[in-house]
Amino acid sequence: MDIEALRTFVEVADAGGVTPAARRLGISKSMVSRRLLRLETELGVQLLSRTTRGAALTEAGVTFRDHAAKVCVEIDIAKEAIMPAGELRGRLRVAAPLSFGPTHFAVVLAELAKRHPELHVHACYTDRFVDLIAEGFDCAIRVGFLADSNLVARRIGPIQALLVASPDYIAEHGAPGTPEELVTHQAVMQGTESWPLTVDGKVVMVKPQGRFKGDNGVALVAAALAGLGIAALPVDLISEHLDSGALVPVMPRYPIPEIGIYVVRPPGQHPARKIRVLTEMLIECFGGQAAKG
Fold first, then answer.
1. Is the pLDDT of residue 236 over 70?
2. 3-15 vs 29-43: helix axis angle to the nearest 10?
3. Neighbours of 147 (CB within 10 A)
4. Which domain holds residue 146?
5. Are strands 139-144 and 90-96 parallel, antiparallel or unpaired?
6. Residue partners of 26: CB distance under 8 A and separation at least 6
7. Residues with Cβ < 8 Å from 129, sequence gap 6 or more?
8. What are the tens digits of pLDDT across the range 208-226?
9. Are residues 78 and 145 in the same domain?
């Protein structure tokens, strides 16, 4: 049985259609369809029901999908076991934040691809939450405080964030002195998030409010510079504006706890070596205390 046909079937099943699966695999839709037809012919059963909206698993397909996925994982582990030391092959799909990805993580991913000519690296840069399993990613690089999930996380380094505002905003509205005062001010933020602040050695969550929201850090920096409100931003994104005085720290007595940079992957007993190698390169680059979560 063709392992590539199995992988293609699993991708179509998880992606919900031929088109998104072809995009994930980096091949044509016709190639995906041919592999599926070959697999169904060999098995003698219909695995997928094609519709105008995509592809849905048949009863046989639901049963076969889990077995096929396990076979693909075991084949990958077996390949790694016999590969020459240090050699990586196949495909690595990585989701990384838009705010930091192109400036901080892209260079590491490029170096990974340079060191391993047989490895295909597909990077997606977005600040939206990516469902690794549903969208077919091998892993993601995430910055912030991780929410509870069934994903496996490895900390690769720290990053510091500050509450900041423009001098114009402070001149017009004043600067909050306590977390209670902070919630009466305008904030620029990604959505409905809460901000963690250190109060008397304990972390307290504060729910800001504001009329400007953006889905990435770069947009929030621009809004803070325009005087639209107070922002909680990583220092690496605003260092030049702090140096120039275009942004100034707010409430330094109540700092934001240290933020982590993490590599997260779907649950599984044996992480692929390509994920381990990427993680090690990121730890080397960012000098973090590696800790499994």
1. yes
2. 110
3. 8
4. 90-158+260-292
5. parallel
6. 91, 120, 122
7. none
8. 999 999 988 889 999 999 9
9. no
